[in-house]
Amino acid sequence: MNAVPSAGPSRRNFLSVAGIGALALVSGGALAGCGQRTTSVASNASEALLPTHMPLQAAAADIPGTAQGVPSAFYKYPAPFRSVQAAPLKGGKITAITNLFGTAPNARADNPAWQAIEARLGGQVEITSVSSDDYATKFNTIIAGGELPDLMLNDGAAVPNIVEFLQAKCADLTPLLGGDKIKDYPNLAAIPEVFWKQTVQAGKLYSLPIPRNLTGGSGFVNQTLLESVGIKSTEDIKDKDDFYRVAKELTNPSKNQWALGSTKFGLTMLHHMFRTPNVWKNDGGKLTRAFETDEYLAAIEFAAKLYKDGLYVPGSEGWTKSQMVNSFISGKVAMIYDGLPAYIGPTGYGRSIPAANKANKAVPFIPVGHDGGKAQTWLDNVTFGTVMLKKADEAKLKEVLAVANFLAAPFGSEEYLLLNYGAEGADYTLDANGNPVVTERALLDNAVPWKYLAAPQQVVYDPSNKDIVDVMHNAYSKLIPLGVEDPCGTLFSPTNASKGAKLGQPVSDAATAVIAGRGTMDALKSAVADWKKNGGDTIRSEYESALAK
Amino acid sequence: MANPSSTLASGLGRLKAKDTRPIWMEKPKPAVQVSKAIALVIICFLALYPLLAVLATSLSSQSEIANNNGLVLFPKEPTFAAYQTIFAGGVVTDALIRSLLITTVGTALSVVVTVAMAYGLTRRDLVGGRFFLMTALFTMLFSPGIIPSFLMVKELGLLDSYAALVLPTLMSAFNLVVVRSFFMNLPQELFEAAKIDGAGDFRILVQMVLPLSRGVLAVVGLFYAVGYWNAFFNAMLYLNDDKWPLSMILRQYVLLGQPMGDSAVAEIAVPSQAIQMAVVVISLIPIVIVFPFLQRYFTKGVLTGAIKG
């Protein structure tokens, strides 16, 4: 049986397309390029021997996580413990390629964090890193060059024919990590099964997960503006009519204020209200694409009504992310769609919005069902990506896995502090509560993309403000139980990989036209019919056969 | 007393001369002058407006940027925070130095190679000259793809070296044609005289051709310099991030909207849009400094090389 990692939304998507709703639904996350062969077999993950989950006896969280996947939350950094005893490299060197967010880090010679990490590793890691937008070009060029690095990020888009690539060039990790074998790598063993499912392909464990907190959320709302119209929380909104009423009250063009406005209309919150499936709907083995459902059409129709009645900022569908963020910060728009991880951290909305404009406070949008029932969110942020290992002899693979085990050190460990905050003294100091306080140089010392080579399960942590931790944890607690997986997230369809994005584009365009008042619902339905005829049905049957295996 | 008839004749002559003067040589009417001035001011404003916006935004705080929807023209409380952040890190400073070095060395080498080949190809007695010219021109029509170029750079052992940014683009066929055309139009008699006096080709090139070709050399040098300064793709493909020139840093910051360093951990909330604009300003400075000194050669040099060819 065959399987693949999810190509679903990840941090990459959040950074590049804030209002991802319509696009994710239409492209299915398959941002595959063209020109690859389409002879690959459809594949499924379900029969792979997944690693046994062995939680670490780590520090107790202030708010514990749940088995459903709600992350643990911490108000302060626990007393650090050492999670890796021996240096994984014995003076050797391994190579890697991954994404880089932000600019280049300080060079190794002038980077105490980098030096301290390699001292603990016992050798060097030569990392080739480029931004997510350049990754496909760089990685494919390196593949063509024939000399693959030891660790390679699979971002779900760079290699369209991923199954063949994995089988030809990457190591099958099942014999080294499957079942109880993973106990040799305790930090990797502490990653729950839900994340490992994303790393299976062609029935084998081919990569390591870089976990995220399962859901990308439903967007954000300006709490201050919401309260000004008498609503304390979006959970108090009763149904779609009430949502419309609130949106209407939030809109006042003469005061340069609108209810809605996001790149590509920020449809995700509406889809969640209307319970649109997460890319596909599985009905006993029969698949339906989200845009074939009545829920999707109803959400688009509702968005069109909101747009027609002037509740969106005019032209906001074409906003860049900066424009959207600026409009949200200034209070021009009350509700936006951005990924939930954008809330926390020094530049997250939780801190940046009150810092820029004291009058405003942002909170995650918690949707209600359009009919007053429960909403349905999407588990669309399970992993950032996965990391493949080049084929090598067992000793080399074990060495590389030991490095990955170090990089996956969990929150609360000494290694986590080192990897995320740098060298103590030069890059951070611990305050009276044991929280790391970074120095000015930490910004660029910590830019080495270790966390995109291997990572632990994430937690909610922000020592600056207890309220932000509570709000964020509350959002995960509400959104994750409402979440549905993409039933095809761990399946592979060669047709979807080769032309899924191209096939879905006309549907996306037709939906945009409907909302903007340029198109009709009939035209949208006709675009969906064309999608089926031109390859959508083939994608469906490939997924269904993979699902049936 | 003047002869009335001759006065009349000279007056008529002046009138005739005035009548036959082309209209564009007439002094424009005040209304036309005013409208021209207005048009010029509008054009200047259109050209300067983006630059002013970039400069002003780079000097603004995040809240001011947000409250002005990302475009500030007159910052109320100007701050150099973005510039301080950029230069404190050292990454932009290092990249700036790298870019200056790559541009200087690359331009010098490119001009030398182009001039040498162009001069050689003007010599009618050069064996295989036509073949070499055609080979160079061929690259104008068919450029190598990304992967063949990468493989060539890799085979030459140039990966992750600055030479990878210079050698693959050392000579542009277009610039070769411009310089060769210019050389071809220099008076051949000068060369013949020099040869009779015993000068060799090297001496003719250095002491006669080059001093006569300052204009075209300035133009070609500027083309190469701007090319090296702006080149990011080869840097992305061939270099690791510790060797990136300013163009790649600029790309990371501005086009891809990436934050400064690791924002997930950093405690210093930086106004990212101000930083983007500050990097644009920094990258503009060298070209803005150099361009006014070279632009007078620009039109002349290109036209000379192209039209007379």
Description:
The complex is a heterodimer of chains A (549) and B (309). Chain A has 549 residues and is an alpha/beta fold. Chain A folds into two domains: 73-215 and 382-456, 3-Layer(aba) Sandwich (D-Maltodextrin-Binding Protein, domain 2); 220-378 and 485-548, D-Maltodextrin-Binding Protein, domain 2 (3-Layer(aba) Sandwich). Chain A has 20 helices and 19 strands. Chain A has helices spanning 11-16, 21-27, 112-121, 132-145, 162-169, 174-177, 186-189, 193-196, 223-228, 240-250, 268-273, 294-308, 321-330, 349-356, 394-407, 414-421, 442-445, 466-479, 494-515, 521-548; strands at 73-74, 93-99, 124-130, 151-154, 200-201, 204-205, 207-214, 220-222, 258-260, 280-283, 286-289, 333-336, 362-364, 377-378, 381-389, 428-430, 436-438, 460-461, 483-484. Chain A has a five-stranded mixed sheet. A four-stranded mixed sheet of chain A has the order 9-12-8-13, sandwiched between helices. In chain A, helix 2 (21-27) runs antiparallel to helix 19 and helix 19 (494-515) packs antiparallel against helix 20. Chain A starts with 10 loop residues before the first helix and ends with a helix. In chain A, 60% of the residues are buried. The model of chain A is unreliable at 1-40 (pLDDT under 50). With 309 residues, chain B is mainly alpha-helical. Chain B folds into two domains: 25-79, no CATH class; 82-307, MetI-like fold, CATH 1.10.3720.10. In chain B, 72% of the residues lie in helices and 0% in strands. Chain B has 15 helices and no strands. In chain B, helix 6 packs across helix 9, helix 12 runs antiparallel to helix 15 (272-307) and helix 14 crosses helix 15 (272-307). Residues 260-270 of chain B have low confidence and may be disordered. The chains are: A alpha/beta (549), B mainly alpha (309). At the A-B interface, strand 3, helix 4, helix 13, helix 14 and helix 17 of A face helix 3, helix 5, helix 7 and helix 14 of B.
